[in-house]
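seq:
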Amino acid sequence: MRIVAFDPGRATSFAILNTETPHRIEVGEVDLIGSGRLRRPCPVHIAELMIGTDCAIIEEVGARPDQGASAVFTFGMCVGTILGAVSARHVPIEPVSPQRWKAASRLGGLGRDEAKDAARALATELWPDQKPLFRVKKNHGLAEAALMARWYFLSGPGRDVPFDGDLPGTAGTDQNRQG
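struct:
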């Protein structure tokens, strides 16, 4: 199963997890088009990411109290573009709230900045080959997208795929298989 997770934002991050090799993950940022408040992820790039994808995970987020109307509009354009491009490829969408995937990753209850740092640290532990990307503070979205894909893998259909011990901290225990 191929899972693609999106962390929408100023720079929309994505993670691609193939459940046959859960110890590897591909991460990146979606190309952007437009400018100003019309700046948004490129739907063509998103559609290309959907080729061969079984499920798309999209973080279900809303406006923060400190955001202005223009920022909320831009964020809405971002999420809408992702939803439209994924839907056009007929890929099932699984929305997930930040609270749900963060709780499953044991990041719940942390402050905003603290949770971002913890997400990068956990992603580095799980996928050490991506350490150069995850160690950069501004790349917290890459780590969060990766952890959303992992959340779906562990709580969704992927939960029945046996681990071979390659993924640190998850080998052989049912406790680590909980979503």
